[in-house]
Amino acid sequence: MQTLGTNHQATIKKTALAREQPEPAQVAPNQLQDQLQVNGDRLNRSLAQLAEIGKLPKGGVSRVAFTPEDVLARQLVQSWMTDAGMEVRIDAAGNIIGRYGGQSDEKGEAPALATGSHIDTVPVGGRYDGCLGVLAGIEVVKVLQEQQLRLQHPIEVIVFTDEECTVLGCKAMAGDVVSDPDYYRRRDGTPIQSCLEKVGGNWAEIETAKRFTQVAPGQWRSQIAAFVELHVEQGSVLETEGVEIGVVKGVVGQYRFVVNVTGRPNHAGTTPMNHRRDALVAAAQIVLAVNSLGVDIPGEQVATVGSLNVSPNAVNIVPGAVELTIDLRDLSQAHLEALIQKMKQDFEAIATATQTEITIRPVLHVLPTLCAPAIMDTITHICQTQGLSHSLLPSRAGHDAQEIGRFTPMGMIFVPSRTGISHAEDEYTSPEQCTQGANVLLHTFLALDKLYRP
Amino acid sequence: MQTLGTNHQATIKKTALAREQPEPAQVAPNQLQDQLQVNGDRLNRSLAQLAEIGKLPKGGVSRVAFTPEDVLARQLVQSWMTDAGMEVRIDAAGNIIGRYGGQSDEKGEAPALATGSHIDTVPVGGRYDGCLGVLAGIEVVKVLQEQQLRLQHPIEVIVFTDEECTVLGCKAMAGDVVSDPDYYRRRDGTPIQSCLEKVGGNWAEIETAKRFTQVAPGQWRSQIAAFVELHVEQGSVLETEGVEIGVVKGVVGQYRFVVNVTGRPNHAGTTPMNHRRDALVAAAQIVLAVNSLGVDIPGEQVATVGSLNVSPNAVNIVPGAVELTIDLRDLSQAHLEALIQKMKQDFEAIATATQTEITIRPVLHVLPTLCAPAIMDTITHICQTQGLSHSLLPSRAGHDAQEIGRFTPMGMIFVPSRTGISHAEDEYTSPEQCTQGANVLLHTFLALDKLYRP
To answer: How far is B385 from chain A (nearest CA, A)?
Structure first.
């Protein structure tokens, strides 16, 4: 469980602090609340307007964290939060926290029902990834404001800082920031300190961004009663199944390894087959063994060799060395560990059979975060009430919710991504699908307000 | 059988012109000739002296064809030929031909018993590859000169031009030069015309270098009665077997292919295993199928995937495309064709199973050249007479003899390469092994002089 190298995602060392789960909520028969709907036109207009900042030719967005585009987008989103009646603050990690007061929040300190996501993008990204979750959260509050409704809980809508690279915002809330700032230095060399300054954060006080405190040995108090994130799937499971809403079971844990295979480079003509120690033949067996971990073992895990480099990589030389990467993801940490055990046994057998040396170096480990069963059940119930088709699935990509779920009950709502494409200009979710997701978020909040006592 | 792209080794379109083989020679019981031995010290001194030109720190040699080092080495070798009583000429392809007259060669036109190799090297090469064959040939003539002996046949010692890159010298003798000079343009862009000028050749007259003429339909007359090349093995078969002399069965034919696998790039997290079309999984199966062609099918063929490149080659992306190369060598053209047939069937099954597209593009084809059985038997007999351990093996690297063997009976003698290393500074064959090889060459010539009537 140790991590590892220069990767930005540090190992999560503490276990989740999720409280005991209450029974699934039954939405109270309040007719007004049952009939509430988000304003789909307004939501989709705000998505389009936000996508103008950093807009790319095909409609995608380039809005990398801490760039002028990111700063401009943050200002726009803050103004929308204010318009929706929220008080807005920025924490030391640069997270934007919009808070809409609740009935049981006289002192402004009651645990909130929270939602949110991110508005930064990869260098060539889409307009839905992250943004939908933030803007749907604001739309939910806007609807309550229009109806002059306040829930028992305060509601928070959070814009997490730099989800696409350092994942710093949500990690700071979960108390998982590494103390060495160089760990978060940007790829272009900019120190994280000056990045945070640009968005109103403060590296020196980063620990103040933590959203839970220890009140007694083994006992924590969270400022967030529950967290629900709406996000595009970024995969094609929902589209393939023809389903409108994905009820997420959890965000997978992930291992990454770099594997080095050492054989002996030799002349491809003059070296008989039985004199060879061909590193690529061994690597090919590794690729198939890793694929078999995903395909042949029951479960929902995925296993990928994405990168493979041969040395010396010449047509007439028997390969002497290969370096390749392995990416392994699953919801169950125990299952992941069993897969890795099997993988290592496979590799030992391959090394013996091919007379090569195989070394495995872990470079990343992120623990899985399971969604709270009560929230999953609530979302499922909402889908049934709203007449939306739905299915359970894991999130195999990382999300801000993964960190927040380490200290408070968490759930995620997915809407379909066309052909599963994300992190690309072609990323697309229809206006109707965006609206459906926001409505499920709205009614989940109404239900959770009753489920969790403030 | 077509070739193909920018590769310097053109397809051989004509079949070998080897004459009908006479019965193996029995060396005549001439006591003087039986006792002849090369001067091993002189041979090894000349190897060391030649290695001074282009010498590298660890004792290797950098003497790429047409460089000042190559020109200087050619001058030195020519002077040694003259010292050994040979007449020296340079043909239009820049080949140096030293001729030691025979008893039955009044007009100087009798077909010669020929030997030789090359003195150019790869950019970082050894001191034995090629040079041993040339200098042993000169040493053989030197011994005859000292004993004031002339064989019935004239003897030719040939330095072939640019074996390591364009293979132009021996190809010109075999009439296999492509008419477009751009085909032989050097990697640095220098035209072949100016290269040939530097070494006394003349591109405009390249066809005059051909060493055989058609005298009637289906009938050719060769200027070379037989050709025998002594060379270091450049592999580790002899060393592994503990054998002193390799009797070469032929120079293998060779096919090279570029294979493109097209799948679909996808997020390695969000794409379930059953939604993938992973090009690297298909490529891994190809690597193992190609290796199996070499390992599991009876024969002496070798099959190699030496180069493999993945796209986009990122840890978290399911590979969308792979390009790889295949190198396939064997002595039998029919066996090669059967292997390729099997390979294509395998690839079709892989494409279906992995839902990928696999295309195969041939980029090189060289026909095998078999050694003349009479010469193989002669060399074997000499080894027995000289008390040298020996074994039959194919040459899986290309040699000048491969081209000469297309129009006249050809044989090759191998001596061991330490750990099989060649084309590197570590290339090494001991002085004793060099001397043994030269003695076998000497006695092979004495025997062939009786075997082939001048």
So the answer is: 28
Amino acid B9: pLDDT:
35
Look at residue A231 in the predicted model and tell me its pLDDT.
98
Tokens of A259: 């594997």
Nearest chain A alpha carbon to B295 = A273
Quote the minimal CA–CA distance from A103 to chain B in Å: 40
Contact between residue B308 and residue A310 where contact means Cβ atoms under 8 Å apart: yes
Rounded to whole angstroms, the Cα distance separating B157 from B153 reads 13
User: What 3-state class would DSSP assign to A135?
Assistant: helix
Judge whether A226 and A372 are in contact, CB under 8 Å: yes
**Cβ contact, residue pair A269, B288, below 8 Å:** no
Instruction: Give the length of chain B.
Output: 454
How far off is chain B from A344, nearest CA to CA, in Å? Answer: 19
Q: What is the pLDDT of residues B328-359, one digit of tens each?
A: 999 999 999 999 999 999 999 999 999 999 99
pTM: 0.83
Q: Which two tokens stand for residue B246?
A: 């390799």
Q: Quick check: B270 and A422 CB within 8 A?
A: yes
CB B105 within 8 A of CB B138: no
Express each pLDDT in B114-161 by its tens digit. Answer: 999 999 999 999 999 999 999 999 999 999 999 999 999 999 999 999
How is residue B181 written in tokens?
A: 């000079």
CA-to-CA dists, residue B204 to B92, B166, B180, B208, angstroms: 8, 17, 11, 9
**Beta-carbon separation of A272 and B302 below 8 A:** yes
Q: Which residue of B has its CA nearest to A316?
A: B306
Minimum-distance CB partner of A307 among B283, B287, B315? B315
Specify the 3-state DSSP secondary structure of B199: coil
- Overall size of chain A counted in residues: 454
Strand B224-232 and strand B410-415: pairing?
Answer: parallel
* Rama region for B433: left / alpha / beta (φ>0; ψ in -120 to 50; rest): alpha
Which amino acid type is present at position A183?
A: Y
Smallest CA–CA distance, residue B314 to chain A, in Å, is 5
Residues of B with CB below 8 A from A296's CB?
Answer: none
